[in-house]
From TrEMBL:
Molecular function GO terms recorded: RNA binding
InterPro entries from the UniProt entry: SLBP_RNA_bind, SLBP_RNA_bind_sf
Domain Histone RNA hairpin-binding protein RNA-binding, residue spans: 41-102
Organism from which the protein derives: Symbiodinium natans
Protein name: Histone RNA hairpin-binding protein RNA-binding domain-containing protein
């Protein structure tokens, strides 16, 4: 395998345990494509989360959290850097998006 010289930063969420690496070097070649590699998976998941965070519903919840704090049943952003199956992550993402579409109430 050949290193591409590209480093992808991996940042832990401030409210969660720091289980992730500080950065991961992207490696070219080897078996499989970038889409199937752990780095490709991480980048795809981060992109899916970024798309949801660009929505009006997410901004509404974010403003609500800043003013009222979090409750146990409030939506929580899925962890992109966890080693979980594709279906598990997609279920978390779907549930998160569904919760975001419900208006926050004080």
């Amino acid at each position: 395998m050949v290193s591409t010289g590209v480093t992808v930063p991996v940042k832990a969420h401030p409210h969660r345990r720091a289980e992730a690496l500080s950065s991961v070097a992207v490696v070219a070649g080897g078996q499989g494509s970038m889409a199937q590699s752990p780095i490709g998976r991480l980048l795809r998941r981060r992109n899916q989360i970024r798309i949801v965070k660009d929505t009006r519903a997410y901004r509404a919840w974010s403003a609500f959290f800043a003013k009222h704090g979090r409750r146990e049943d409030d939506p929580i952003t899925p962890k992109a850097d966890e080693a979980t199956s594709k279906s598990f992550f997609e279920n978390q993402l779907r549930e998160w998006r569904q919760k975001l579409h419900k208006s926050p109430t004080a």
